[in-house]
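<instruction>
Derive structure tokens from the sequence
<data>
Labelled lines for chain and fold
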Amino acid sequence: MNRVLIVEDDAAIVKTLSEFLAGEGFSCETANGQERALELFEENDFDLVLLDVSLADGSGFVVCSAMKRMKDTPVIFLTASGDEHSVVTGLELGADDYVAKPFRPRELVSRMKTVLRRAGKTQSTVELGNVRVDMERGTVTKNGADLCLSALEYRLLLIFINNRGRALTRAQLLEHIWDAAGDFVNDNTLTVYIKRLRDKLEDDPQNPAIIKTVRNVGYKLSE
């Protein structure tokens, strides 16, 4: 699973983007300024950095330059500055791509995957016993047979994968999948989708080995 560092000082963008990327199978950490971003980058191994040019306590250009001196990690600039000078400056500092706001989330994910492939950092498959999840192709198979998950079932599974081993409350799950179905998603709907997912993934849905119930908390994906 690819780890992404989001460096952005707009809390609304951070929340929306983090939740969307989690649903697409990315593990995200965030920083709202230059100092925290460099601290996290130095202490952790990220596969990709999404970096805003304008930060509250510094410049994305400075952050990019410092990061490139430390590690050869791909960087994509996210910024409202779409002028030619900013684009050229970012690329000259070693940025791998440049996406202007506002952007379409799915287009961003496509650009991210392209950059990760070029850098040889694509981690596209996850094995869950006899279930194989190919996040590059968006397919889920069991013993080689396609499980044909719906869009919301697939997104729900990716959320569990992204938080493997962690107990997730029903409220957390609802927050992640709120806009994925295109319909109102409530607690009863979540129960239905958990059951459908288990029916497809588990050898014995009554005694699940993949998506486990954590009493008085919620659910978690087995480690």
Remarks:
- Residues 187-201 form the longest helix (15 residues).
- DSSP finds eight helices and 14 strands in the chain.
